Amino acid sequence: MSGPLVQVRGLSRSFGDDVVLDGVHLELHRGEVVALVGRSGSGKSTLLRALAGLDDGHEGTAVVSGTRAVAFQEPRLLPWKRVLANVALGLTGPDPRGRARAALSEVGLDHRLDAWPLTLSGGEAQRVSLARALVREPDLLLLDEPFGALDALTRLSAHELLARLQQVHGFAVLLVTHDVEEAVLLADRVLVLDEGHLARELVVPSPRPRVRTDPALVLLREQVLAALGVHTASLETS
Known about the structure:
CATH architecture: 3-Layer(aba) Sandwich
Strand order of the largest sheet: 5-6-7-3-8-9
Order of helices and strands: EEEHEEHHHEHEHEEHH
Distance between the termini: 52 Å
Shape: globular
CATH superfamily: P-loop containing nucleotide triphosphate hydrolases
Strand content: 25-35%
Largest sheet: 6 strands, mixed
Structural class: alpha/beta
Helix content: 25-40%
């Protein structure tokens, strides 16, 4: 299928007198990883919810030409269902439990099929959430700060897992994150959302796999921070 996977045109969203999105235009192509960063309240999650079909109170258009799945910061697992049943929930077509089992194997949790969600670590619960999205074979994976609650080491493992899954399956990713380093490590493009507008777009030049000490990534991180109004020189001298 040719053309953009995602086309957003003039997307606006208000809550009372509070304008959260103001005429946003965006395109996202198949197999592309795009990170969306911005200050709290800048409209990141509102834009993601519109693309997920979870909020129809906006003006303008938000078209996804394919299937989509969503994972949030909170895994949102049903505590009264075991891991395998959580991943298989709502699946249609042949052998839903077999497909759910295969998805859990891909995220390294084939040994936790019968576990209750409350017995999982934070990293395990987030991997179950990814498996639940993966089993739906999405063209677009929408991630709303999925790694924000994880400790630093678990977050690194989650980054590696997401990068591997994206390379294997080729789905596009829109990643909402507050973590600028996470954005430049994972994305092909970084979009800065400011007061409801896309204020800046930065292309990540470094090939994968990436290392944090790559001078190009260090420079890009500083550019993204500057676009967010954070200047690293002032941080270093404060």
